[in-house]
Amino acid sequence: MSSTIWTEKYRPTTFSEVKGQEHVVHKLEAFVKEQNMPHLLFAGPAGVGKTTLSLVMAKSFFGDSWKSNFLELNASDERGIDVVRVKVKDFARTKALGDVPFKIIYLDECDALTKEAQQALRRTMENYTSTCRFILSCNYSSKIIDPIQSRCAVFKFKPLEEEHLSSLIDHIVKEEELSLDEGAKEALFQASHGDARRVENILQSAATFSKTITSKDVYSIASLAKPQELDQIFAHCAQKDFLSARKKMLDIMLEYGLSGVDMVIQLQKEIWKTSFPSAIQLSFLKMCGEVEFRLIEGSDEFIQLEALLAHLIAELDE
């Protein structure tokens, strides 16, 4: 088996290979065709193609000299004002190499930049527009200050749909000579939440142990409980059997190594698949929000999870 990390091995290298973001790809292709572009802001969840599209743009703009004219920085590693004053400014102030109009600086996770660093970045974007363009990537555009957003063309990325993930999975399975059992692909959909990078990492981890990948392998590597096991918790609650529901919940947490917050998140997603009345589902969802907040604030997770189950049983008993 190749030692290459699959997230790099299967990274798209052309616009046509990027799936699920067609509404963005067409506009970016037009920028490349015109050999000009504004500053860009890419916002969206992880693993949906923001960095990939930035690299594709750089290679399309600059050809073989793209590494000399493209600077990639991760703002979450160096989030202070110095990274803008030193690294970014030093790269931006010099002319591009070759017959190209400007350089490109790609700032990943720029929502991790402090407000002071963002203010410094705003001035840098203004001062060096003639020699440099910025591509800013973030998960939440609301964390980027308005002056920067107004200087950029904002593109919103969305989680990849199942059809796009399915084609990626089929391609990797064929290339790596793997086989998936019934339910493994559906497990990958549930574990990834539209994140292609997560799909690739789970598949590579599972393939290390066996060429035949099962749904159990996927849930185990992703540290997720099977939906059927969560259904058993709700079934015990429906029977007003608190002790059995509590035991099943603790067994799941121990088997998969789940934290209290992980358990709450999975339960709130699975509640919608039950046959409980809508009012009870909504009440349970509200309680999940309260319990998650308490856990993040430092409350004892077992007491809070027991309170969550007790709340559901009490609601069902009315």
Explain what the structure shows.
The chain folds into 3 domains: 21-156, P-loop containing nucleotide triphosphate hydrolases (Rossmann fold, 3-Layer(aba) Sandwich); 162-221, Orthogonal Bundle (Helicase, Ruva Protein, domain 3), CATH 1.10.8; 227-317, Zinc Finger, Delta Prime, domain 3. The chain contains 15 helices and 7 strands. It has helices at 6-9, 22-34, 50-62, 81-92, 115-127, 146-150, 162-175, 184-192, 196-209, 215-221, 227-238, 242-256, 260-270, 278-296, 301-317, and strands spanning 39-43, 70-74, 103-108, 132-138, 152-156, 179-180, 212-213. The strands form 2 sheets. Strands 2-3-4-1-5 form a 5-stranded parallel beta sheet, sandwiched between helices. A two-stranded parallel sheet has the order 6-7. The longest helix has 19 residues, at 278-296. The model has no long low-confidence stretch (mean pLDDT 88).
CATH class category label of the largest domain? Alpha Beta
Low-confidence stretches: none
CATH homology superfamily name of the largest domain: P-loop containing nucleotide triphosphate hydrolases
CATH topology annotation of the largest domain: Rossmann fold
